[in-house]
Amino acid sequence: MTDPIAVDPDLYAPGWTASPDDWQSETTSIGSSLYRGLLDNGRRIPSDELQFETYEAGYAVNHPGPVPDSANSCRHLVDLILESDRENPLFRSPVGADRERALQVLDIGTGQGTWAIDVADMFPNSTVRGVDLFPPPVTWMPPNCVIEVDNVLEDWTWREQFDLIHMRNMLGSFDPSEWDRLYQQCFDKMAPGGWIEQLEVGPFVKSDDGSIPPDSAMAQWGPMMQACGEKAGRSCDIILTMSDSIRKAGFVEVREKTYKWPLGPWPKNQKLKEAGTVNVQHWMSGMEGWCMWLLTKFGEPEPWTKEQVHVYCAKLRSELKNPYYHAYHTSRRVWARKPMPDETPPRSFKSSSQ
């Protein structure tokens, strides 16, 4: 993931006179082979038809802020697109190779339950539990999927030992001591040989070609969110710390994979183009919910007004539509195993990359 992302030269030629806001009409429809491939494999594609406002894991876990359901669906779809070359795009932990095996799966911060429902569909003999502080806006789910409302920082009362514990998009949810408690509870309720997997997205917007102006709203977003998170006691650098935190809890065989999530359809690579098209919609729908609480409580040099947040988000939306800004942010997936009872943990603390 260190290689620069090649830019699609046909998106906008130099000297193009049309408004950058028109880029959506100049790109191929997202209903392409990646979508069809996911559908052909019997996997659900998230729908944007439901326009309920729900509370999602992330800042909203402890500090609720409404995020449209469409934003949550887009986030899940970006994950699926970037893993669409795999038979199982939902997780990388080496469990479930035998589809007939009855797994016990826990999805922490399940949000609207999309990941939990998809895993339950893929593994019909397994039991998948999704847990969050707020009930999801779903009217149907597979019989082997259970969505529960609970606080994972309280003592866990589940009788099962889990084969896979999954979480994602938990940025800013907990302070350091709460993260340690959560990972320890995962370890304690994990079956020996079971796996934990976490996928998080970093807030810093980057470009490989220097196309993002230093004074732009995009460039300001990451440092601003990081500063607010630090003042709130909930750091936004979880993608940098989760490997060590998971290892500290006792897990072994720690692996990780880093991704680039484009913002917009500007990449030449078709998979990245489609991921970027979905991801930019994710940002358009979700940004105000992500930053409203932080900026009105911890903005600098003093807390912002709601009107200031609206103006900033409008500027950011305008920049996100500009095809000349070749922006992306990074995400990292970490997965690790609970050792067997007679296994001696390795002394090395180096993670393996995939």
TrEMBL record:
<protein>
    <submittedName>
        <fullName>Uncharacterized protein</fullName>
    </submittedName>
</protein>
<dbReference type="InterPro" id="IPR029063">
    <property type="entry name" value="SAM-dependent_MTases_sf"/>
</dbReference>
<dbReference type="Pfam" id="PF13489">
    <property type="entry name" value="Methyltransf_23"/>
</dbReference>
<dbReference type="GO" id="GO:0008168">
    <property type="term" value="F:methyltransferase activity"/>
</dbReference>
